[in-house]
Amino acid sequence: MIYSFKGHIPVIHESSFVHPLAAVTGNVIIGKNCYIGPGAAIRGDWGEIILEDGVNVQENCTVHMFPGKSIVLKEGAHVGHGAVIHGANLGRNCLVGMNSVIMDDAEIGDECIVGAMAFVKAETVFSKRTLIVGNPAKVVKEISDEMIAWKTAGTRLYQQLPTDCHESLREVEPLREIPKHRPIQEDFYKTLEEFRIQNKE
């Protein structure tokens, strides 16, 4: 669901994947290896929205702004399920947790992590590498090298997902019973604690 609006046609790099049930409208530029999940709405009707390379905007997220504003989600920004980015800029390799709301003219610094369900007030500026939680959101600590390495590894899964979707995602009729040789899915994700244990070995 890609829509032009007042002469603006979205620009989407061929390596990126926009799910058919997402909506991308107007003045939107999407870089390489980006993933846009089903139910996401990226509305560039009132201003420009730029997603740099490797950004993911997951299921049921909204990216929009007030008229006359333009925003950037910098390289590797990771927007969790159900989050709302309204007129805010996201720094490189940051993570916005599920169901968070980031309001107008807020600035999330590089490699920040915004906790799930946080509310970031308009015009709030957070410096790089901080953990941001709560309503209203505030800094609770700095991000360690270990935590940002874990976040970066998780984001790499989403940067691989566009290729996987291009190669294997197909609309199908459902099976009516479980097949005897149902494929087994890979176990390739580690929780932060598992990541810590793995990297100490």
Could you name the key traits of this structure?
8-stranded mixed beta sheet, UDP N-Acetylglucosamine Acyltransferase, domain 1, Trimer_LpxA-like_sf, 201 residues, 2 helices, Phenylacetic acid degradation protein, alpha/beta, 20 strands, 9-stranded parallel beta sheet
Overall average pLDDT: 94
Number of helices: 2
CATH topology heading: UDP N-Acetylglucosamine Acyltransferase, domain 1
Q: What are the secondary-structure elements, in order, as H or E?
A: EEEEEEEEEEEEEEEEEEEEHH
The N- and C-terminal alpha carbons lie at a distance of 46 Å
Q: What is the CATH C level class, in words?
A: Mainly Beta
The CATH superfamily name is Hexapeptide repeat proteins
- Approximately what portion of the residues adopt beta-strand conformation? 25-35%
Q: Tally of extended strands? A: 20
Q: How many discrete structural domains?
A: 1
Q: From the helix content, strand content and strand pairing, which structural class follows?
A: alpha/beta
The percentage helix is: 10-25%
Which consecutive residue ranges, at least 5 long each, have pLDDT under 50? none
Largest sheet descriptor: 9 strands, parallel
Global geometry: globular
CATH architecture: 3 Solenoid
Q: Which value, in Å, is the CA radius of gyration?
A: 18 Å
